[in-house]
Recover the amino acids of this structure.
């Protein structure tokens, strides 16, 4: 249904008891308010922009939920997204690509995981005392600072910078962490 969406209308409007309603704003092309039934009669109000990309694919871009995003912000967001699409971009494809990159990054080993493997590998080569000291250094200094960092994003610059900042690194001349060399 095409209507002029205003703040006053939004404050008085009630969500349907069940199902979903879609309202298209007459002031901003392709801006829609999707209202779904919700718990306790509150409902769910979402701003979206529906359009086609240059490739012809239909796309629906979520701009946020009302009341967090008001009508003015929704219109401004819709204009920005439509301008991106008019310029040849596909915001949803970019979002999917970014999500895939985040998922791939999460699968990469971390410095902490690699440190554990390194310690396990060196345990049989080192004396007990040296092994325990290295294990202590890794647990106390390296893992808290670098453990969660994806290994692929850890460069020699990060490695050397960290070693030079720590007391342990200063004692050893700011040398690199052996497993990162």
């Amino acid at each position: 249904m095409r209507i002029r969406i205003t703040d006053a209308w939004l404050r008085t409007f009630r969500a349907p008891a069940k199902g979903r309603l879609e309202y298209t704003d007459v002031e901003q092309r392709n801006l829609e308010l999707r209202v779904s039934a919700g718990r306790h009669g509150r409902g769910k109000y979402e701003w979206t922009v529906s359009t086609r990309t240059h490739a012809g694919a239909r796309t629906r871009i979520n701009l946020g939920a009302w009341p967090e995003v008001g009508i003015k912000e929704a219109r401004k967001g819709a204009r920005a997204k439509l301008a991106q699409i008019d310029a040849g971009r596909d915001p949803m494809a970019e979002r999917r690509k970014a999500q895939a990159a985040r998922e791939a990054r999460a699968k990469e080993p971390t410095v902490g995981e690699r440190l554990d493997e390194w310690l396990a590998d060196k345990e049989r080569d080192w004396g007990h005392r040296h092994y325990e000291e290295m294990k202590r250094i890794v647990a106390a200094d390296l893992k808290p600072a670098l453990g969660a960092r994806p290994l692929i994003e850890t460069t020699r610059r990060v490695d050397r910078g960290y070693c030079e900042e720590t007391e342990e690194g200063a004692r050893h001349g700011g040398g690199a962490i052996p497993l990162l060399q």
Q: What stands out?
A: Confidence is low (pLDDT under 50) at residues 172-176.
